[in-house]
User: What shape does this take?
Amino acid sequence: MRKPVRVLLVDDHTVVRSGLRLLVEQQADLQVVGEADCGAAGVAQALALRPDVVVMDLTLPDCDGVEATRRIRAAWAEARVLALTMHAEDTHLLPFVEAGGLGYVRKAAADEDVVTAIRLAAENKAFLHPEGWQTMVRGHQGTANSGQPGPEALSERERQVLELTARGFTSREIGEQLFLSPRTVETYRERLVQKLGLEHRSQLVEYALRYRLLG
Assistant: This one.
């Protein structure tokens, strides 16, 4: 039997955390391993507990969820962080994804959306409603870096791997769609990072958004 997905909840509202805990612990494959009521505590808990998924409120009293996510990812690159937000149009959403976040759940979302988002995040897949993608695409319109190679510099296969990576698919899943081995997909990803002058693979998402490859 597979171990349950370990979840850390970060939100400054006790009622929200309690509701999330109740929802998560009703699922046989999910388990809450910790809670935090501010960004600093969320960072500390994430690094101490190393949960499978961190559910992070974007609005926190000390530092926002974007900064907390950035700190977690800087210290632990494999961290999988899912945002909690009030609205799909949240201005924090684009910076959150650029900081390494895996998508968002609206606080008013149906229970099944929250559970689905956590399960997807545990598999390193993004959960974003179409309006969320459009918000981020609009946020990057006109911001292309003139010193960086554009999509026209990529081969068709490189572009396919880039787009599927940005949409949250794993190497195995990309390989199945493109009839490649997972190792070959990883090689394409590393080649993309070098070719585009990026420092981290997580920046492939930002690149795809900047050049409007997902909208």
